[in-house]
Amino acid sequence: MVKTVDIAIVGGGMAGASLALLLQKFCPQLSVALLERQPLPLPTAGTAPQLPSFDTRATAVAAGSLQIFSELGLWPRLRDYCAPIERVQVSDRGRGLGAILEADPRKRASFAGMLGAVIENAALGPVLYDALAQTDAQLLAPAQVRAVTMESGGAQLSWRAEEGGSERTLQAGLLVVADGVDSPLCHQLNIGVQRVEYRQRALITTVGLQRDHGGVAYERFTERGPMALLPLPRRDGQHRVALVWTCADEEAEQIASLEAGAFVERLQRAFGWRAGRILRAGKVHSYPLSLSLAEEQWRRGLVLVGNCAHFLHPVAGQGFNLTLRDCHALALTLARGCAAGAPPGELDLLQEYGRERRLDQQLTIGFSDRVPSLFASGSLWARGLRQAGLLGLTLAPPLRAGFVGQAAGFGL
């Protein structure tokens, strides 16, 4: 028996779950199925996620993205698990000049008055799925998608609930692929990928500080790669920040293998004392870095969102924010099409979505790709250019305001 839905989303991570919620809000008349390969035990409605005090990954969410979460009614629950970013201190290690980007103090009560917030993933996931459980969206998990066939009316998916289980079929007017880099479905659909290997790794962990971070995020550029300390909520009386430390492949392996005390000492020496004394660090996770761009993000009956569409360098924390803006725009575009009687997989509708997203993607991807190499270069030309850029941000309020607006997700 073939089951039919208007939209099938393959991939139940933050991108897929957010899109499903946005579709339920803006296109409630469309049936949505979300397929996730891993089992996803749903939390009991209203219960608080159980969070560790350390070793929890986090996501920097721009103010514009917080506004989207507010539209979905999620902010009252997320607020308890995030730390606001009120200022970003940008500096060039070993050089005196830097820049401070801060929210407008006159607008502190609104999302436009904050640069964003850092939300712990251990809380964000359960909040998204708790909200999803209260909608009409169908959650199919675990669901292993075995094959996809594109047809004139959309896509036909063959999937199994478990390895060796019976084959099931799902027909969808629009297929949204929301899985990760090296997506098996994208390979199957012959969607090419442009990739730049940075030959770097991101070391990610939670760090304890001696003093309160005060809502300040630090972006520190060194000749070996950028470093970021992002504010986290206090837990168990500890002042915590999330560390993203970009290193060359060979150096990253050596640093990640250090015992805890030696790691903290190496981190303090590399970052400096702008955030105060570093007391401890949690377990260090290491991830390879690359820029990955799908050569096609839409076809008739098909859209790509999330990491399979674009996977960015984490230097500015814009990957998930760009994805969320994509998902928001897609839901609004499909809502307009639905009101006009257009099927969700219609090519003209998806091309409209693509035109709307082109400029934001180009600016965000270009920035995330070029800034790390500029700040890592030791050449006199590069040093002069980045110092001029920091000086411009310091002395030119309109330039600084435009940069802050784009970083906060309000620039376009």
UniProtKB/TrEMBL annotation:
Q: Where is the FAD-binding domain?
A: 5-359
Q: Which GO terms describe its molecular function?
A: 2-octaprenyl-6-methoxyphenol hydroxylase activity; FAD binding
Q: Does the keyword Protein transport apply?
A: no
Pathway given for this chain reads: Cofactor biosynthesis; ubiquinone biosynthesis
The alphabetized list of GO BP terms reads:
ubiquinone biosynthetic process
Q: Does the keyword Oxidoreductase apply?
A: yes
Quote the SUPFAM superfamilies the UniProt record gives.
Answer: FAD/NAD(P)-binding domain (SSF51905)
| Alphabetical UniProt keywords | FAD, Flavoprotein, Monooxygenase, Oxidoreductase, Ubiquinone
According to its UniProt record, which cofactors does this protein need?
Answer: FAD
Q: Please give the family membership noted in the entry.
A: Belongs to the UbiH/COQ6 family.
Which NCBIfam families does this chain map to?
Ubi-OHases
What name appears for this protein in its UniProt entry?
Ubiquinone biosynthesis UbiH/UbiF/VisC/COQ6 family hydroxylase
Organism whose genome encodes this protein: Microbulbifer rhizosphaerae
